[in-house]
Amino acid sequence: MKKFTLALGVIAITFSAKANSPYITKVYDFLPAPGQFINTMPEYEEGDTKTTILTKVEEQICGNDDDGATPGMISLGAYGGYVVFGFDHPVVNVTNEYDFKIYGNAFKSNQASDGGSCEPGIVMVSQDINENGLPDDEWYELAGSEYAKSETIRKYKITYTKPDDDRAIGADPDPNNKYVCDRTYIKWVDNQNETGYVTRNVYHRQSYWPLWIEDTEISFEGTLLADNAYDQSGNGSYFVLKFYDWGYVDNQPNTEDPGFKIDWAVDADGNSVTLSHIDFIKVYSAINQHCGWIGETSTEVCGGEDLHPNAVVSSGIENVTFDSDAPIEYYNLQGIKVENPKIGIFIKKQGRKTSKIIL
Ligand SMILES: [Ca+2]
Ligand SMILES: [Ca+2]
Ligand SMILES: [Ca+2]
Question: Is-contact 328 340, C-beta < 8 A?
Fold first, then answer.
């Protein structure tokens, strides 16, 4: 917190400028799909509602180690499960730079070079166009490495059906896999004429259905990435989930993933869109895949970070056209002329035309 005092004649005005936090500060929505970590990450307790669950999600993914609020982890469950969050400021799209990171728990296998535990989640971004502080505006997908591939299915839709409350834990054991105690636990149908089940395994015996949700069906829509797992062992004991190249949460180890660029945003028809900044981020599980004893493929989220929290939106930059053959001057934010601007925020001037520019 910095304080500034301006003395104007006899009137002294004091105001404060609070530094932006680089870390997630707010969770707006959370709807996981069924999965083995649902009701445990975060923990559901009797009486919990959507409101109390959102608070628990905030306790897990807001802040960071350094300020004492350690990010934990939430699981988004099977395909489609999502979380929506934001920062205490808009995330600025700094040209040619990665803009933010979202952390997961992906790791490399020590028995395979092409993967490990990689459970990619797709990122969507949105601006608060109607200025109501809520993520009820148009969403744009950040097109990752798989976006344009023929195996990727756009406008995928899936519906899960809640199992009976009194369904036994071992209702339908898989005769070929002693770790799967209910192979027909939670049914799903999709718009590709496929159907299947989220299976229950012996390691996770709680309900896999989000218990604070009253509905008996949950549907999700989005982009579906191709399955990424193979059974390296040949007998179902060791699966490798392959890395995708870039642009997904929980896909590469946190230390190796450079993050996300707002410039990757596309609209629902796949057209590239230019966004000066974003206010909301959504992450959803992007693969509908089940791997024996390790269960459904589910994206985990362990916090996130704006990579340039103090960048300023370069307002008007798109609307100001400068003549290429007339002299242009640059000033820093204190109004001092700069001869050869390099990195930072500057005011660009040409006659009466001005605009803020980030270099
Ligand atoms: Ca950028
Ligand atoms: Ca809004
Ligand atoms: Ca994971």
Answer: no
- Compute, in angstroms, the gap from residue 274 CA to the centroid of ligand 3: 30
CA of 304 from ligand 1 middle (Å) equals 16
C-alpha 97 to ligand 1 mean position (Å): 4
* Residue ranges near ligand 3 (ion) with Cβ within 5 Å: 105, 119, 250, 300
Question: Is the bond leading into 42 cis (omega within 30 degrees of zero)?
Answer: yes
Distances (CA, A) of 262 to 46, 70, 127, 141, 279: 40, 26, 11, 10, 11
Name the band, by pLDDT with cuts 50, 70 and 90, for residue 356: confident
Cα(9) to centroid of ligand 2, in Å?
42
| Residue 332: band (very low, low, confident or very high) from pLDDT cuts 50, 70, 90 | confident
CA of 181 to the centre of ligand 3 (A): 22
Is the pLDDT score of 82 beyond 90? Answer: yes
pLDDT of residue 40: 98
Which ligand has an atom closest to residue 129 CA?
2
Q: pLDDT tens digits for 217-227?
A: 999 999 999 99
What's the whole-model pTM score? 0.84
Q: From ligand 2's centre to the CA of 3, what distance in Å? A: 31
- Please determine, for residue 16, whether its predicted confidence score (pLDDT) is greater than 90: no
Residue 43: strand, helix, or coil = strand
Per-domain residue ranges of the chain: 26-306, 316-359
Of 311, 296, 214, 302, the closest CA to residue 255 belongs to 302
Q: How far, in Å, is the centroid of ligand 1 from the Cα of 333? A: 21
Distance between CA atoms of 228 and 200, rounded to whole angstroms?
21
Q: Report the alpha-carbon distance of residue 163 to residue 155 in Å, rounded.
A: 26
Instruction: Name the amino acid, one letter, at 134.
Output: L
In this prediction, what percent of the chain has a pLDDT beyond 70?
A: 90
Report how far ligand 3's centroid is from the alpha carbon of 239 (Å): 14
C-alpha R_g of the chain: 24
